[in-house]
Design a protein that fits this description.
The chain is mainly α. The chain contains 13 helices and 4 strands. The strands form 2 sheets. The protein has a two-stranded antiparallel sheet with strand order 1-4. Strands 2-3 form a two-stranded antiparallel sheet.
Length: 342
């Protein structure tokens, strides 16, 4: 019995990586162009930006929310960055202004959800509409040119064949992993996502944690927007429209629970690569692009069904909603430290 439990645990921990390895191996076997070094490098480069967005989305989903405005934040940041850079400002100023803009939108979302108690879907959908509308009005729906050499290099350069932008993605992933697994606030994020009311009674500053989670989401979306500017060298008001659903899809495939409190950030890396490989493989096999949404949707549905079955089969013992300090996968295991709640 214990052996079966151990095998189940190993499957849950490494199952997504096994699927990724299997899909990659099959595509390498059937498509010579897929297994070319250039194509494999392109997969890393093409999926780094949405991977960064997914890192921020994972933090918000683990805390019990999600953000439909990350695309609007990315587009706004790319335009703001282009305008700031075009006026002769250096990389530090351009990046700082862009990141602060993203954090500001994230904090605004967090306040609406945590303090005003507006549903996350309504709050972030409304924020996306407001931000996008203001952006189109301010720019007249026209693209803005301007980029700093640092952003251009970070988005396009390669070192030993590895895209620098993918290294940036890994850096963001590592930072989020450290936050979630090695800090008190990381434990709070899991706790609030598992049971906000019980967390409040345990002394967790629930509102501050929720606002912080959305600020992190805004920060990651803004960073992705700046890298998008570096790639295209143009700030486009209409860019990044697909980011919210793509990032949520990555998180769901990566095992981040839609209900909050459960998830491991390292599986977001596996999900990003898996969906990227599937998309690229379909292109290399000359499959009609109209099939891509259907295949992606099927992968998401399978991931949700398998995850639900696995949790029911295991009694949903981990990440239980009944405990504010539930031992969710990837969560810190140190006891909660009471703090003044806001």
């Amino acid at each position: 019995m214990k052996s079966m439990a151990n095998r189940s645990g190993l499957l849950r921990r490494f199952g997504l990586w096994l699927v990724f390895a299997l899909v990659t191996s099959v595509l390498m076997a059937v498509s010579p162009t897929f297994r070319s070094t250039v194509n494999l490098e392109n997969i890393l480069e093409q999926n780094a930006i949405i991977g960064i967005v997914a890192c921020g989305m994972a933090v918000m989903m683990i805390s019990g929310g999600f953000d439909l405005s990350v695309g609007a934040v990315g587009a706004t940041t790319s335009v703001v960055g282009a305008v700031v850079a075009s006026r002769g400002n250096g990389a530090i100023v351009t990046i700082s202004v862009g990141l602060l803009a993203g954090i500001a939108v994230g904090v605004a979302n967090g306040i609406l959800i945590a303090k005003v108690r507006i549903n996350a879907f309504v709050a972030t959908f409304a924020m996306a509409s407001i931000v996008s509308g203001l952006l189109f009005v301010a720019t007249g729906a026209e693209s803005k040119q301007g980029v700093t050499p640092l952003l251009e290099s970070a988005a396009n350069a390669r070192v030993a064949g590895i895209p620098v932008i993918f290294a940036v993605f890994l850096g963001c992933l590592l930072a989020v992993w450290f936050l979630l697994t090695r800090t008190k606030y990381g434990h709070y994020i899991y706790s609030v996502g598992g049971n906000a009311e019980a967390s409040h009674l345990s002394g967790v500053p629930v509102q501050r944690v929720q606002i912080f989670a959305f600020a992190m989401g805004g920060l990651m979306a803004a960073g992705a927007g700046l890298l998008l500017l570096g790639q295209t060298m143009v700030g486009q008001p209409s860019a990044a429209a697909d980011w919210p659903l793509e990032a949520i899809a990555i998180c769901v495939v990566g095992g981040i629970a839609l209900t909050g409190g459960i998830g491991r950030i390292e599986d977001v890396l596996a999900a990003t690569l898996l969906l990227g490989v599937i998309s690229n493989g379909l292109n290399q096999l000359n499959v009609s692009p109209y099939w891509k949404p259907a295949v992606t949707g099927l992968v998401i549905l399978m991931a949700v069904v398998i995850d639900r079955y696995s949790r029911l089969h295991n009694g949903a013992g981990r990440g239980s909603k009944n405990s504010p300090a539930a031992a969710a996968p990837g969560a810190p295991t140190t006891p909660l430290t009471p703090s003044a709640s806001t």
